[in-house]
Amino acid sequence: MMRRFLFVTLISSIMLFIGCSQSAKPLDFPDLYPCTVIITQEGKPVADAIVEFIRQDADNTKYVPVQHTNNKGIAVMTTYGFTGAPAGKYKIIVTKNVEDETVIKDKDTGEIIIVSETKYKLIDPAYSDTKTTPLEIEVLKEKNVKQTFDVGKAIKIKY
């Protein structure tokens, strides 16, 4: 799961960094439709979560809508760096992880040394698997989809 998280983060970062113009779309690229999700936890916005849509019907699973939430928990979905998502039914994967590092400063060299690193999941792991996530959305051609999803109680699970 960590590799998938890193891959999605890398791809979305690259797409945001280089930007995309309309001429950069692949030939088989689907039409996109506006879709915004708001992620909350115990009713409060979740910042810096990764939201990923996993296609549930057989059409075009090649292009995955993905986005990070802002400080208000809002993710305006993008696909391959373009705003929107292809029409269809999706399961929603939501993850948020943090790392705590214990560091020391070498007395002789002044160098900072990481002596331990602990990683935590801040959202119930059920939301990070298509088999267990209860979150679903349908992106429609005829309307701008905007929906709020709550990911349950705040947690901090070491992994």
In a nutshell, what does this entry contain?
11% of the residues lie in helices and 41% in strands.
Keywords:
elongated; Immunoglobulin-like; 159 residues; single chain; 1 helix; mainly beta; 6-stranded antiparallel sheet; 4-stranded mixed sheet
What does the model show?
- The protein is mostly beta strands and about 160 residues long.
- The protein has a single domain (about 1-20, about 30-150), classed as Immunoglobulin-like, CATH 2.60.40.10.
- The protein contains one helix and 13 strands.
- The strands form three sheets. A six-stranded antiparallel β-sheet has the order 7-6-4-3-8-11, covered by helices on one side.
Average pLDDT rating: 87
Largest sheet: 6 strands, antiparallel
Shape: elongated
Radius of gyration: 18 Å
Give the count of structural domains.
1
Task: Classify the helix fraction into a percent range.
Answer: 10-25%
Report the CATH superfamily: Immunoglobulins
The counted number of beta strands is 13
Strand order of the largest sheet: 7-6-4-3-8-11
CATH architecture term: Sandwich
Provide a count of the helices: 1
Main CATH class: Mainly Beta
